[in-house]
Every structure is written in C-alpha cells, then in structure tokens.
Amino acid sequence: MIRMFLLAAMASAGLLGSANVAVAQANYPEKQLQLILPFPAGGASDVVGRIIASELEARLRKPVIVMNRPGGGTTIGAREAANAAPDGYTLFFSSNSTFTLQNAVKETVPFDSARDFEPIGQIGTIGMVLVTHRDNPIKDVAALVAAAKANPDKLSLASFGAATISHFAGELFKSSAGIKMVHLPYKGSAPAMNDLIGKHIEYHVDTVIAVKPQAEAGTVRPLAVFSAKRSAFLPDVPTLAELGYPKADIISWGTLVVPKGTPAAIRDRLAGMLEEAIATPAVIERFQKVGFEPAFKRYTDWPGFVGKEIAEMKALAQAAGIKEE
Fold first, then answer.
1. What domains are defined for the chain?
2. What is the pTM for the complete model shown?
3. Predicted confidence (pLDDT) per residue in 180-202, tens digit
C-alpha cells in the first residue's frame, strides 16, 4: 500500500516519468542498437560504418546491427533515421552528401539536417583528387588552366555523378581557376575511372580511395588534391591551395548522428566511446586501408556548421548550374 501510494504521488507530481527516463539512461543500453547506413553494402562508406558498428558493439556490450538503406541520393536512410525514436538505439552514419549537398540542389528534402539530428561526432574525411590519364601531355594544373583558358568549353571534366561531391569539387576548381570546362557526369566512380584509364576522357575528379591504386599502378596521374593539406595517401601530390587556388578546398566528411532529442547523457557516452575507438591503432589501420582519414571532432554548433556549408554549396550550385539527376 505504501509503495502504491508513493507511486501515485510521484505520478501526480510528474516525477515518475522523469524517474523512469533517468533509470533508462542509467541502464543504457538494455537492448541491441541499429546503425542505419544510406549506402549499398560493399562500398568504402559501408566498410567505415561497419567498423564503427563493431567498435561500439564491443564497448557497449550489446549488438549493433547495420541496416543498409540506399536510395534517393541517401535521403531514404536519412529520413528513416530522422523519424526514429530519440532513445539512443538508432544511429545514423553519413557524409556531407546527405547533410548539406542534398539541400543545395533540391527544393525539398524529407528531413532537416540541422533540426532533425544531433551529432555524436565527425569520424573522418575522404579527400578528392583532380586526375588525368598517364599519357596526357598536360602534366600539371598550370598547363591545364592555360589550355582551358585558351579553349573555353573545349576540354571536359568528369565526375562520378551529377550533384555529387565529385561534381561540386570540379565546379569549385573551375570557379577558382576562372575556366570553363564541360561537365561529364557518370553513374559512379568505376565507369568514370575505367574511361579515364582507357583515355576516353582526359580529366576527372574522384576520391583518393579510387585514385590511389591506379596512381600506384601508373595508369593515371593525380594533378592535385582538394583538401587544405596534402593527403597522407598521396603525399607527393600538391594541394590546389599550394598551386594558387586556396578556395578550391572541399572534402567528403563522415559524421555519426542520432535523432534530435536523444538524451545528452547517451550522446556524451557514445561520443566518448567513438573518440576512444578512432584513436585505436587497429581502427586507424582499418580506416586507412579504404582511404579514410580518421579525424574525430565534436561539434559545438551543429546547426551553424551545417547551415554554413549548405549556404556555400547552394551558392556554388546556383552559379555552376548544378542540379539533381
């Protein structure tokens, strides 16, 4: 009777719900988690996501099930994650392709990157590379810019898809250099790289993941990377900033988020585990095998960060005429 009286009193005072939430947070996790990936299985981003899942699983001592939800330019998976319960049992890993580029090219997106998610932390980055085939007589960026200025819209620059990070990087280079080149969108990295190796196209923007093995084999020649500093995977390749184009700085960054409203205590715990995992030599080695540069970062202002990049990418998209496929 006393216990029932106390429970009734707590409920009437609005304390029972708070107490239950506190207990649930203290016991977290009590069941398996799911990590939604908006990519098909097998790609580099999928591999990185599965590494994250396995590391969190080991630390949380609960299964972390990977759920691949590709499609819609990553919006299908993002929408599912945004609509999930904010209880810490649904995680979502993606890149700026989801969080900022979608908003730059689409009138409507079925989620709001700033308002529907809260970040656990950035996990790392993937660099972008301007590359040509091995037999091209134009062997550096200066010669390419000179040729493009002398022949506006005569040279072409391929990407692995319209409105992808590859497309944005290419348009950023052209804008920074003040040149005009015809954009050739492909349906993925592999067919674009095959055509470059076969000398059917002259210039292409791709990830270090795709370029590195071909550069080592001598089938392609990297001309420059788009990151602020040189890539650890292509240390002999200069940055565009070094070559006089400091604004041509764009990378693909990967971040783990949870639905908005997930308790801060749970977010902090996940962030601490993630930061610890990424600093582990074995994890660093696994990331680097797929060309992913680990770099943990907590966001002090996620809405501000996302909003700023969306505005920048939207301005670039409008100036360059970048549109979704």
1. 31-125+253-320 (3.40.190.150), 128-225 (3.40.190.10)
2. 0.83
3. 999 999 988 889 999 999 999 99
What is the C-alpha separation between 257 and 49, in angstroms, rounded? 12
Distance, CA of 189 to CA of 166 (rounded, Å): 9
**102 contacts 280 by C-beta, under 8 angstroms:** no
Is 78:111 a contact under the CB 8 Å cutoff?
Answer: yes
E strand or H helix at 122: strand 117-126
Q: Is the peptide bond between 213 and the residue preceding it cis, with omega within 30 degrees of 0?
A: no
Q: How confident is the model at residue 231 (pLDDT cuts 50, 70, 90)?
A: very high
Round to whole Å and give the CA distance between 31 and 37. 20
Which of 77-81, 125-129, 160-164 has the least mean pLDDT?
160-164
Measured distance CA(191)–CA(118) in Å, rounded: 36
Which of 240, 237, 206, 245 lies closest to 226, judged by CA? 240
Rounded Cα gap, residues 47 and 2, in angstroms: 55
Residues 6+ apart with CB under 8 A from 74: 38, 39, 94, 97, 98, 102
Cα gap 78→69, rounded to integer Å: 9
